[in-house]
Every structure is written in C-alpha cells, then in structure tokens.
C-alpha cells in the first residue's frame, strides 16, 4: 500500500492508462485488505444465504486499509482531473477532449465495480471461497465450486479489460451478459425492480449491464490500451484488418 501511495503522488500528471492501472491496483489491494475476514467463525452452520454473503463482504480487515484506500482513490481522482484539464487545454477541440475524458472515467468506474466481487470470489482465500460455494449452492446452482471460480474469472477479465481498455468490445459484451445472467440466476428478476427490496431487485444489475454494453458498441475510446495496441505497426503486420477493426477504437 505504501508503494501505491508513492506511485500515486509520483505520477500526479501521468497518462490516462497509468491512472487506470493505478486505480485498478489500488482497488484490488485496498478492497481485499479492508474486507478480508481475518478471524472467521469456527462454524457457519445454520447461517442463512444472506448471512453467508455478508460474512465475506464486511471484514473486519487490516486496520487503516480502508482509510488508505480512500486517500489513494482521492489522489487518483486528482490525477484524472489534472490530466483531463491538461489535454483539454492543448486540444483543438476542447469539447471532444472532455467527452473522451468522460468516457474514460465511466469505463474505468464500471470496470472497477467488479473488483469487490472478484476479490471475494477468487482472491480472498479458501474461507471466502467456501462461503461463496455454500451461497451459490443455496441458490440452487449446479456445481457451485466451478460456478464461483467461473464467476470470479469473468469478473477479473471484465475488471482488467474495462479498466485498462484492452479487448474492450468483447470484454464489455462478456461482462454485460454475465451481469444479466447473474440477475436471472440470482432470482432478482422474480424479486422485482427496485434494488432496495429485500434480497435486491434487478435495478442495479441491469443498469450496470447497460452501462457496460455501451462499450461493446463504441469501444474503449481514445484513452484505452486498444488505441495504442491495435493501431501499432506490429499489429498491422500480424493481425488481420477485420480483427483490428473490431478491437481498435
């Protein structure tokens, strides 16, 4: 965490990709160590599904990590504002530059939203994994251990792909479909629309999926890894033009 703090200060005027990478690293580290349950109960027998979910999502973790995470997040946001202002001031079209910055911010935000979920599913250790296996089993899902691992893997791919803007279109399609299916298999469509309903309606999940689906259409935008990767000379030589047109922004 100290290295992340130093990096955030050092790169206060770094590139957009550097800002995105630092945001992803900060989110993973701060989220894991602020919610990681360091003293799991001796027995989880008799706990309801909602209790199982809360058990791995509320800590307690390492003291101070949550505050450090917020501090780093604020520094990264300052980086984004400084970079956006600098680019807009030097651009021929200030409006286009600001629109590109706004698209970058939304893409990174919806990507980082996967971090708390993948952290609990596949990065939180055997206790957290066991809890989610039991939780998925309580939902009536077959092969719950495989389902938890698969969910965590898709969330990891979605977080990295959207945050950095790499393979943005296929990753956005994957993430959007995954969220809709999780709403379906989790029974949220049957519960109702409003997310604040007991056990949660489908409002939040569908909104999140819709926001991600936008990037399946428009791509990662000007400030994405795809822009540099698929327009390079090596990509022109090695990757068919049809593939590059799909992947490039």
TrEMBL record:
Q: Name one Pfam family in it.
A: DoxX
What topology does it adopt in the membrane?
Multi-pass membrane protein
Judging by the UniProt lineage, the source's domain of life is Bacteria
Report if keyword Membrane is assigned: yes
Signal peptide stretch: none
Residue stretches spanning the membrane: 67-85, 97-119, 139-164, 171-193, 205-225
Compartments it resides in = Cell membrane
Which keywords fit this entry according to its UniProt record? Cell membrane, Membrane, Transmembrane, Transmembrane helix
A single GO cellular-component term on record: plasma membrane
What family is this protein classified in?
Belongs to the DoxX family.
Q: What is this protein called?
A: Uncharacterized membrane protein YphA, DoxX/SURF4 family
Q: Which organism is it from?
A: Bradyrhizobium erythrophlei
